[in-house]
From TrEMBL:
It comes from Luteimonas notoginsengisoli. Pfam families: DUF6776. Residues 1-30 are annotated as: Disordered. This is DUF6776 family protein.
């Protein structure tokens, strides 16, 4: 009898084995420690940034480019305005000085006009030979330059001529001492300064004071070619500040 081949009976499919996730000894999933590390690192970075922004020097704070450019532009404007203000102040100061000089010049011209009218005008008071003003200006060392204005309108049309000499009264070593014209000119027998005019003339010259001498008064002496000599005194302080003549 022939052997018959037996066909195996089909078996039901086996259910796939479900892989159980491996758990650490603490019972927590394996991916959780990595996530916690990332969060912890982020927290550290944020804290470090906060500390840097809090304690960093002001000069090291990084500003946006647009804000930095605006700050630079404003600083430039402030510098320009300050420079403009300084220029305006300097110009105003120069203008004030010029105006003061012009006012002084105008006052001098008015005084000259009044002077001319008084001595040349028909209504001017008649006066003989007179020392109208005396001015002293310091030079180098003990030297001084004097300028005196001589006037006369008593004899109109006639010429007054002669010589001018000066003397100075003061103290030296605590004692009164007078310096003659020869002493002031440092020359024995020094000639006087000549003058010749009809109405007025400005005469000047130089004089030298000894060291340690304290001048108090200046005497101007006119020696005309005809007539009596004329003397007029001026306090030294008045003559050195361009004041009116003293008595």
């Amino acid at each position: 009898m022939a052997e018959t081949e037996q066909t195996p009976e089909p078996q039901p499919p086996e259910a796939p084995a479900t892989a159980m996730p491996a758990t650490p000894s603490g019972g927590t999933p394996a991916g959780r420690p990595l996530w916690q590390g990332v969060v912890f690192a982020a927290a550290l970075a944020f804290g470090a940034w906060g500390l840097w922004t809090t304690f960093a020097p002001v000069g090291e704070v990084v500003q946006p480019r647009g804000q930095r450019a605006r700050v630079d532009a404003l600083e430039q404007q402030v510098a320009t305005l300050k420079r403009s203000d300084q220029i305006s102040r300097d110009a105003n100061r120069d203008l004030q000085g010029t105006l003061a000089e012009r006012d002084e010049e105008i006052a001098g011209l008015r005084a000259d006009v009044a002077f001319y009218e008084r001595f040349v005008g028909a209504t001017g008071q008649r006066r003989g030979l007179t020392v109208h003003t005396l001015q002293l200006q310091p030079q180098s060392g003990q030297a001084w330059h004097f300028t005196t204005t001589l006037t006369q309108n008593l004899n109109r049309g006639s010429v007054s001529s002669g010589q001018v000499t000066l003397s100075v009264e003061g103290t030296r070593d605590g004692k009164l001492h007078e310096l003659s014209w020869d002493d002031l000119r440092q020359q024995p027998g020094a000639a006087g300064i000549p003058y010749s005019f009809k109405y007025f003339q400005e005469v000047g010259g130089d004089l030298v004071l000894p060291a340690g001498y304290q001048p108090l008064r200046v005497i101007v002496r006119l020696a005309p070619k005809s007539g009596s000599a004329v003397e007029q005194s001026f306090p030294w302080a008045d003559a050195t500040r361009r004041s009116d003549p003293g008595a």
